[in-house]
Amino acid sequence: MQEAGATATPVDAVRAAWWRVVLTAAVLAAVWWPARPGGTDGFPLSTYPMFGYARAPTSVVETALGVDAAGRKHTLRPVVIVGTSHPKLALATVKRAVAQRRTEGLCREIAARAAALPEEERPVAIEVATETWDTLAAFAPGAEPQRRKVHARCEVSRGG
């Protein structure tokens, strides 16, 4: 232990320099590790591979849409599709119905909820469909799907 005002010995200076080198190497390794070539995602450091690879040129989406009197398609809110405001639940419900070939029943359920909408928001029909989109162009204004397969279509009751 050194006394107050005593100068550091050469051994203390070497020991302090060694700790600085070790600490610097550890920090550099931690920064380099996620960006290293061939790195994989995992704990405790993540390279976030969900953002690190090219996306497929198309995306396939199962959806339920409202159709107005002019035939235009409109996105339905999750509360109309499944009776709750959770979009992931709406997506999973439609996807499961398509996979299990139970789209007619889902279509009727959605139409019953849509019938309760105010007249100006109420579609004339519901379509449960699978759409294939250009992954990037899908977000452009006025974008349309490349392909569309309608699994079920049902009319919405006009009684108010």
| Morphology call | elongated
Q: Count the DSSP helices.
A: 4
Considering DSSP H and I runs of 4 or more, what fraction of the residues is helical?
25-40%
Q: By helix and strand content, what is the structural category? A: alpha+beta
E-strand count:
4
Q: Please tell me how large the radius of gyration is.
A: 29 Å
Q: Largest sheet, described in full?
A: 4 strands, antiparallel
Distance between the termini: 89 Å
Provide mean pLDDT, rounded: 87
Q: What is the H/E string?
A: HEEHHHEE
Order of strands across the widest beta sheet?
2-1-3-4
Uncertain residue ranges: none
List keywords for this structure.
alpha+beta; elongated; 33% helix; 160 residues; 4 strands
Q: What topology does this entry show?
A:
Elements: H1 10-32, E1 58-67, E2 73-75, H2 78-82, H3 87-99, H4 103-114, E3 125-134, E4 147-155
Antiparallel strand pairs: 1-2, 1-3, 3-4
Q: Could you characterize what this model shows?
A:
With 160 residues, this protein is α+β, with helices and mostly antiparallel strands. Helices cover 33% and strands 20% of the residues. The chain is built from four helices and four strands. It has a four-stranded antiparallel beta sheet. Strand 1 and strand 2 form a beta hairpin. The longest helix is centred in the N-terminal third of the chain and has 23 residues. It is elongated. It starts with 9 loop residues before the first helix and ends in a 5-residue tail after the last strand. The model has no long low-confidence stretch (mean pLDDT 87).
